[in-house]
């Protein structure tokens, strides 16, 4: 049985350190870092993620503001809200929860966030800097994944890493971060010809596809480090016959745990680390603005 990389515990210890740091920052600069989170509409998954972000800010003692806009809000109004936060001296980080309703141009919204306050690291200016190897804000999930791999003590340099999924939020940036640490990186996706064989070659396997239990033990090299980014809600039937649901990852944890050397669980793996890295990015934005 592989060792579980406990994202919840790692997050907690990082957040405890941040508590201290924020007290010191307030003493030094006369105010705390402040995060603004904007949510449009009432998608239950987005609401739950946003709640987690606001709770984490309060846990570490950071200031936060939640801006809730209705599903049918005009794009102009959202851009105006962002503009006001861009100009607000006391706001250090701005996050617009994605996805946005179809009538809103997501790219326009991301581009409108001031690059120094882009705590998600999604602005094209930050993405360009990441790929150029310049100092930038690193997207939260990829940053958390690297911290989790590093927590195992295994060396990334020289290893073969396979990232399954090519999203702008996870797949592409995590591949770049692994490359920066001298891994030999393959980005696999839905059109990859022999996905199972490609995955079996990975010393480090990052699954970020959004398909429940898609990666089974037969796709994992014995001793690999397996990072499961998937958060999939699947329906279940409770003992009393009523319908419920539970969260599963992209990796079939029960079979994969027997073959991996280290593996992240879902829930309690990458998810908590993403939120913790958001706190870290907000502190970085605060410092860069002093
Ligand atoms: N929706 C899903 N993941 C994310 C994320 O990391 N940031 C934002 N803003 N929205 C998301």
Please specify the SSE layout and strand pairing.
Blueprint: E1 3-4, H1 7-29, E2 34-40, H2 44-60, E3 63-69, H3 75-87, E4 93-96, H4 106-112, H5 124-132, H6 140-151, E5 160-164, H7 171-180, E6 184-188, H8 195-200, E7 204-207, E8 225-228, E9 232-237, E10 243-248, H9 253-256, E11 262-263, H10 270-288
Parallel strand pairs: 1-11, 2-3, 2-4, 5-6, 5-7, 7-8, 8-11
Antiparallel strand pairs: 9-10
Helix pairs in contact: 1-10, 2-10, 6-7, 6-10
Bound molecules: guanine (GUN).
Distance between the termini: 48 Å
**Sheet with the most strands: spatial strand order:** 1-11-8-7-5-6
Judged by helices, strands and strand pairing, the structural class is alpha/beta
How big is the Rg?
19 Å
Q: Major β-sheet, in short?
A: 6 strands, parallel
Strand content: 15-25%
Mean pLDDT: 98
Q: What count of helical segments does DSSP give?
A: 10
> Could you tell me the number of beta strands?
11
Shape by Cα distribution: globular
What ligands can be seen in this structure? guanine
Order of helices and strands: EHEHEHEHHHEHEHEEEEHEH
Helix content: 40-55%
Uncertain runs with pLDDT below 50, 5 residues or more?
A: none
**How would you classify the quaternary structure?**
single chain
Task: Please describe what this structure looks like.
By secondary structure, the protein is an alpha/beta fold. The protein is built from 10 helices and 11 strands. It has helices spanning 7-29, 44-60, 75-87, 106-112, 124-132, 140-151, 171-180, 195-200, 253-256, 270-288; strands spanning 3-4, 34-40, 63-69, 93-96, 160-164, 184-188, 204-207, 225-228, 232-237, 243-248, 262-263. Strands 1-11-8-7-5-6 form a 6-stranded parallel sheet. Strands 3-2-4 form a 3-stranded parallel sheet, sandwiched between helices. A two-stranded antiparallel sheet has the order 9-10. α1 (7-29) runs parallel beside α10, α2 crosses α10 (270-288) and α6 packs across α7. The longest helix is centred in the N-terminal third of the chain and has 23 residues, at 7-29. The protein is globular and about 50 Å long.
């Amino acid at each position: 049985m592989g060792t579980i990389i406990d994202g919840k515990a790692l997050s907690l210890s990082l957040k405890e350190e941040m508590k201290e740091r924020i007290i010191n920052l307030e003493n030094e600069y006369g105010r705390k870092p402040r995060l603004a989170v904007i949510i449009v509409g009432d998608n239950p998954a987005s609401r739950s993620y946003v709640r987690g972000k606001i709770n984490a800010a309060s846990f570490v003692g950071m200031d936060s503001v939640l801006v809730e806009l209705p599903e049918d809000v005009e794009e102009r109004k959202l851009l105006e809200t962002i503009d006001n936060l861009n100009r607000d001296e006391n706001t250090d980080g701005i996050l617009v929860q994605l996805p946005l309703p179809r009538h809103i141009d997501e790219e326009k919204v991301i581009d409108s966030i001031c690059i120094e306050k882009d705590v998600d690291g999604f602005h094209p200016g930050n993405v360009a800097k990441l790929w150029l190897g310049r100092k930038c804000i690193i997207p939260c999930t990829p940053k958390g994944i690297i911290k989790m791999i590093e927590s195992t003590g295994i060396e990334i340099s020289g290893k073969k890493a396979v990232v399954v999924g090519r999203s702008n939020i996870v797949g592409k940036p995590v591949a770049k971060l692994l490359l920066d640490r001298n891994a030999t990186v393959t980005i696999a996706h839905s059109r990859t010809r022999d996905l199972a064989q490609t995955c079996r070659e990975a010393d480090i396997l990052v699954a970020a596809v959004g398909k429940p239990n898609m990666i089974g033990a037969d796709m994992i090299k014995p001793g690999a480090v397996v990072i499961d980014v998937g958060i999939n809600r699947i329906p279940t039937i409770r003992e009393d016959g009523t319908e419920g649901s539970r969260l599963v990852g992209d990796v079939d944890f029960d079979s994969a745990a027997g073959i991996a050397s280290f593996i992240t669980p879902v829930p309690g793996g990458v998810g908590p680390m993403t939120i913790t890295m958001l706190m870290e990015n907000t502190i970085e934005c605060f410092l860069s603005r002093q």
